[in-house]
Myosin motor domain-containing protein
Amino acid sequence: MPPKPKAAPAAQQDDTRQDLTSLILPGLSITPPSEDAITGTLQQRFKRDLPYTHLGPTTLVVVNPYKHLEQLNDASLNEYADAYYRDTSGQKRFLQPHIYEMAARIYFHMRRTGENQSVLLSLY
């Protein structure tokens, strides 16, 4: 049996944890973030192959990396499913923002509440 592919190190604890949420949360900043602050954050994460960035608790910004990334594999999918769907302990560990996280959270919310969910994709 071939070895399982290794997941990308999603649970990094360094400065890659910064995302746009810290720029827009009420109480953390008196003024809204500037275009430069938002663009700078997106550029920094993109350069580190982190194309997914939270913009608030229900919005995910994705910058197309135009290349294959290691974090798009079955092992990574299972890691996010375990953390955001299967783990009901309430003790969520930190994982980088990812489309797998958003999908798991949407599905879990739909199953828990019975409410319909919408996903909007905007391409520029």
